[in-house]
Amino acid sequence: MATTKFRHVFGGLWGFATSCKKNSSTPIGSRILQRDVEKEEFQYASILCLSKYYSVFVVRLAIMVMLAILIGLLTILTWHFTKIYTTKSLNSLAYDLRYELLQRPILRMWNILNSTSEITMAQVKLSQYVIRSHGNLTTQENQVEMYEAMRAVTWALFASRKALNSITVKYNNGFVQAFHRDLKDNNTFYIYSDLANYSIGASASSYNSDINYSSLSSQESWNDHDNKSAVWYRQPLDPVTGEKIGKAMQIAPEDSIHIAGLSQVPDGVASWRVVVSKFTDSPLLSAALPVWDASNKSIVAVVGVTTALYSVGQLMKELVELHSGHMYLTSLEGYLLATSTDVPLLTNSTKPPKLKMSVDCENEVIRLGAEYLKKSSGNKFPPSHEVHVANVRLGHDRYYIDSFFLNLKRLPMVGVIIIPRKHILGQEDKRAFKTLVILISASMCIIVIGWVCILILTNGVSKEMKLRAELISQLEARRKAEASSNYKSQFLANMSHELRTPMAAIIGLLDILMSDDCLTNEQCATVTQIRKCSTALLRLLNNILDLSKVESGKLVLEDAEFDLGRELEGLVDMFSVQCMNHSVETVLDLSDDMPKLVRGDSARVVQIFANLINNSIKFTPSGHIILRGWFENPNPCSDNANHLMEEKNLQCAQKTRTRQHENHAKRTSKRDNKAILWFEVDDTGCGIDPSKWDSVFESFEQADPSTTRLHGGTGLGLCIVRSLVNKMGGEIKVVKKEGPGTLMRLYLRLDTAGDATEQHCLVDIANNGLVVLLALHGNMGRSITSKWLQKNGVFTMEASEWNGLTQILRELFHTRNSAGINNDFDLHYPIHESLKSKLLSIQEIKNPVFVIAVDIGLLDLSTDIWKEQLNFLHRYVGRAKFIWVLNHDTSNTIKMELRRKGYMMTVNKPLYKAKIVHILEEVVKERNHEMQKKNMDELHESDYTHCDAASSDDSDISESGPCNPVKSEKVEQFHRLSLYRINNCLIGLTDEHSEANNTPKKEELCQNNQNSPKSLSLEQDYFPREAHQGEDSESRGKEEHRIIGGSARPVNGKKSLEGLRILLAEDTPVIQRVATIMLEKMGASVVAVGDGQAAVDALNGLLGVEDFRRDSNLNERNTRSSSSQTEILSFPSYDLVLMDCQMPKMDGYEATKAIRKSEVGSGVHIPIVALTAHAMSCDEAKCLEVGMDAYLTKPIDFKLMESTILSLTRRTIS
Amino acid sequence: MREKEKERKEEISKMDVVTQMQRQLIQYTSSLFQEGFLDDQFNQLQQLQDESNPEFVVEIVTLFFEDAERLLNELSKSLQVEQESIDFRKVDAQVHQLKGSSSSIGAQRVQRVCIAFRNFCEQQNVEGCLKSLQEIKQEYSLVKTKLETLFKMEKQLFAARGSISR
User: Fold this and answer.
1) CDD domains from the xrefs (chain B) (predicted)?
2) Domain ranges in chain A with CATH number 3.30.565.10
3) Of B40, B96, B104, the CB nearest to A1142
4) Measured between alpha carbons, how far is residue A439 from residues A7, A11, A71, A81 in Å?
5) B118 near A CB under 8 A
6) Which residues fall within 8 angstroms of residue B9, CB to CB, at 6 or more apart?
7) How far apart are the first and last CA of chain A?
8) CATH 3.40.50.2300: which residues of chain A?
């Protein structure tokens, strides 16, 4: 048991150790799991984990089995040894007992034998003595006397031994004397033969002759005597005294007892045998001895003694009664001599009775035992063979059988003792069984407890393993789900072309329909409705496709350098138009530390914010939308702090940010060039329920489903945003905000290009004594701008309405003019204390320059009062610079009026940093200029040279000097273009405006446009960047193109591509012709070539073009455009190239590469639009890679081509 | 007076004929669209046709016929069975051209077979290519007859109109 326990504990420890090992290996596993689930690793991990799980299971099982085996073995061993020892000792004890038991009857047997032989000997000796003393038996009297003496002697002996059955003396003359004791009725008899028949002489002679001659013949003669002529008498005697009590009765010799004769002692020595008499039912032992005469030469008489074996049986019975079992004694031949039972030993059926064989014994046990012995040792029992068998089945019970050999001369005997096993080992067997049961149950208990312990000990491990296995299966399931979702996305991505083409066709056809004049009003309305729906559908389609593109991993982010600030400014410009209608203010608030140039996919970044702002606009009926951005802040704590600060004071936060930035910038610059850019889109809309903060980013999820009815939308926008943000290594979430509205915060990981931070040109505007009066409508924008200016050392004042403005103006200038009036004004217009202090501090500024930014919205435009207001302001022109902040829908009359009054600086809303910086720089420079050349009478011409360079900034400041109309026109035109680029929605409006505004100039320009290489070359200075930007906006704003398709159509019958010269490289004549006609319908002049080589040649000014033209079957058109052919010769430049990708000789890619190569160094960049039949993005990527600017798929869509070409060439026409 | 009435009646009957023809033409065209012979690209072509190019569609389609026949000839030449090795790239380029021109006139069934053809080319499956070639030929002749009928009808209509206006 101790070992079992030890083993058990050991097993437990082992289990613990293994679990420890498992535990130590878990981190690796979990780390693996935590990583991005890459397939291989995942599978490896899963196999590892599963195998671990199974191994634990197996180990557990093994431990249990080992324990079970061990305990089982121990139990069996214990039981076995106990049993063996007990059995051995018991067996030896039992053996002793049996031996002892058997010894006693054998001793008795010996006793009987000994006493019999002793008596026989004594009788013989006495007979010898008596016979010798009566030496001469010559007379009858002598003989009788001798017989009398013999009788007395014999009686004495017989009486002394009660156990004797009989004593016989047979003389050689045939006379017999015998005493017999009948054990049945306890009578004693004297038996003798008739004396008269015996003659001494005859007998003597016969004796002599017998001895002399042959003992055999004499023996026969004795027997003859006995049988023939003997007369026998039996006389009962008193058993004690020996006196005759009855009459002698003659009996037949057969009836008498057995008389030992000469035949019993053939060789004159004593003999032993077992006899049977009719008087007893037990066998008798008889011994016979001869009596020799004095000379020892002849036998005088034979003495026989018979003893009953009854007493042996009696003893056996007594013994057996005490110990139970059976005993019996057999002769060597197998005759039963004595048994411990009462069964008769003699057969009764035959006469005379005979001895029974032991195998025929009526007692079953004895018979079976005898049979067993016979079987085991054969028929012949070998002498001195002893059998000891411990476990013999006789009948139903088990017995011990032991046999002993009793070697008597002439009468070897076998004693057998059969003792039931129950008697000796019964208890022991029972005990053994009980012990076994107890042992087994105990070991069972131990095994069970051991198992439980093992289970408990290893349960932790197995539980963990089970969990891990579950996790694996779940991951597997997730992977499958992702894969299936991927398939879906892939399918959608592949379907892009198939989906977009029909939509484009629908919209294009609708446009055609709408332009048709013959439609009734009703039809027109319906078609317009259809057009709107189609646009919506297309937008939805684009969203889904975008999303699926991202999800299927087909979206490859571009990695190009771009000006983040400018992109965002453009975005805000675009949305501000939309916001105006909602009376929502859009504010861009980028911190100064934002890196100017970053690397990434500008189109996608813009898409992110476009979606977010769009979303905000949708849900913001009034208030403001702020797009904030700042550089880095990985620390969530300071982020929170930052956040709180913002809540309290948005403007102050900027300072904090700057400070924080200084710390973090160092840190980030150490890590690669990756910068973390934080953005916030803050609106004052209806807000999102906090419980939906996470789910709004799911596909087709909207915070409030009911809003769909109100605002429309599909719920895909934010999902796309999140996908894109995640793709750029960032995160987006909704953040808690005080007050109404939603605050979305996100960060992007973008490469900063070169310098992490830009060096602002603020140095110029600070410390120049500038005083800026911001008279702007929007509170948020105004305060942000003002704070920012103040931070940069510019003194600012704010006014939100007309009265405030006038008040400040009066205060400002009247106090400066005359302090006396000041008091009057104090009376009339109570001034704020803060304003007062400001005014005071302004007075301290030396030589201040006043800049007044007036929102046109401050004027009362509904009536004609605005003119008077303008006149009022005009009074201050000499003392302050006015900047007019225009709305996009400001009417032309106002603009005309402003221009008429000589206000040169106008700026479109919204006002953001870059614009302000630009304006202020302008002001400063102008002032410096004035100061330098105060005395010189010069025109402002030089002012505008920098204007060109500066206007590469993405602002739409326009200046028009009356003295320099050509230049200002150019500038204006440029601004319109850049505006178009930023916001396609503005095209039409700007167009309209410019057309209405200066139609004559425009017409003039149109005429000159083709042959004004001067202006063209000037434009080309901006070209590379513009083209690049254009392409971005093209891909970003595809949908906008379509939306504004209607407004972009030719107005006043003008063709949209009027005056453009386009080189078409296309080998398939059909397509070539179609495209040519399309382009010509749009007003462009087209030169078509058949392969890439020809295109390159044509661009290089070779005359191969003409050759081709002759070949091509443009019969009619050729003649008509012969006039333009001369133009080609004189002006071999094209505005755009449409390039098929697959062409003989030289394909589109090669041709483009060649063209771009030839352009290197010349600064020229001709827009190339790819025409391809492939619809997948990889082709697009390839096209863009080789230097093409845009991408059109075949079949050519009229509208799409128009808008694409327009977007690329807009700057060259006006 | 009677003569005038007669003329008027004639004119009216002619007008009827014209409207009927017009209807027939429209039905036929729409059937072409419904059966998928043509797609909206053909519409665009028709849009492009104006006074300056009155025969534009016919011209383009004729161009297409010429081009397609040339390409089909070349294709069957290069796909001849006797040829040891077939230049699949050449075949592919030719089919691509055919695809481009057919899509440009809006013969979308031809275009579709072209796409299948190109797939076979990619797999270098000669049997598939031959099968597709047969299909293309079939589709081409179908669309050709359809278009010719269409043009004939248009011509008739035009003639009828001309007679009225005269």
Assistant:
1) HPT (cd00088)
2) 556-634+673-752
3) B96
4) 17, 21, 10, 13
5) no
6) none
7) 107
8) 765-812+835-934, 1061-1102+1131-1209
Is residue B133 packed enough to be buried (19+ CB in 10 Å), middle (13-18) or exposed (0-12)?
A: buried
Q: Which domains does chain B have, with CATH numbers?
A: 1-165 (1.20.120.160)
A735-744, A819-828, A1142-1151, B44-53: least confidently modelled range: A819-828
Lowest mean pLDDT among A361-375, A1043-1057, A1191-1205: A1043-1057
Smallest Cβ distance to A1070: which of B39, B53, B67?
A: B67
Secondary-structure class of domain A765-812+835-934 per CATH: alpha beta
- Kindly report the three-state secondary structure assignment for every residue of A1159-1199: HCCCCCCCCEEEEECCCCHHHHHHHHHHCCCEEEECCCCHH
Size of interface A-B (CB pairs under 8 A): 70
Mean pLDDT of chain B: 80
The predicted pLDDT at position A474 comes to 92
Contact predicate B139/B109, CB 8 Å: yes
Radius of gyration of chain A (CA): 71
Average confidence (pLDDT) over A1128-1143: 69
Q: Among A1074, A1176, A1193, A1201, which would you mutate to test the B interface (most chain B Cβ atoms within 10 Å of its Cβ)?
A: A1074
Determine which of A510, A1073, A1119 to mutate to test the interface with B (most B C-beta atoms within 10 Å): A1073
| Tokens (6 digits) for A826 | 């104090």
Q: Does B37 touch chain A (CB under 8 A)?
A: no
Among A81-85, A243-247, A533-537, A1047-1051, name the one with the lowest average pLDDT.
A1047-1051
Residue of B nearest to A1080 (CA): B48
Using only the alpha carbons of chain B, give its radius of gyration.
21
The mean of the pLDDT values for chain A is 69
- The torsion of the CA quartet B146, B151, B153, B156, rounded to 10 degrees, works out to -160
DSSP 3-state percent helix, strand, coil across chain A (nearest 5): 55, 15, 25
Task: Show the tokens assigned to A527.
Answer: 């078609």
Residue A933 in this model has a pLDDT that exceeds 80: no
Q: Residue B139's closest CA among B121, B118, B101, B113? A: B113
CB A1170 within 8 A of CB A1148: yes
Q: Which of B41, B63, B102 has the CB atom closest to A1069's CB atom?
A: B63
Q: Are A531 and A514 in contact (CB under 8 A)?
A: yes
- Asked whether the beta carbons of A1044 and A987 are under 8 A apart, the reply is yes
B59 touches chain A (CB under 8 A): yes
Choice between B127 and B11, residue whose per-residue pLDDT is larger: B127
**Pairing mode, strands A284-292 and A299-308:** antiparallel
- The CATH class that applies to domain A556-634+673-752 reads alpha beta
Nearest neighbour of A1070 by CB, restricted to B40, B64, B93: B64
Whether the predicted model's global pTM rises above the 0.95 cut: no
For the domain A1061-1102+1131-1209, what is the CATH superfamily, name and number?
Response regulator (3.40.50.2300)
Closest to A356 measured CA to CA, from A377, A379, A374, A331: A331
Tokens of residue A327, six digits: 């005993």
- Mutation target to probe the A interface, by most A beta carbons within 10 A, among B41, B49, B51, B118 is B41
Which region holds residue A1187: left if phi is over 0, alpha if psi is between -120 and 50, else beta? Answer: left
B164: contact with A, CB 8 A cutoff: no
Minimal C-alpha gap between B5 and chain A (Å): 33
Residue A1189 burial by Cβ neighbours in a 10 Å radius (0-12, 13-18, 19+): buried
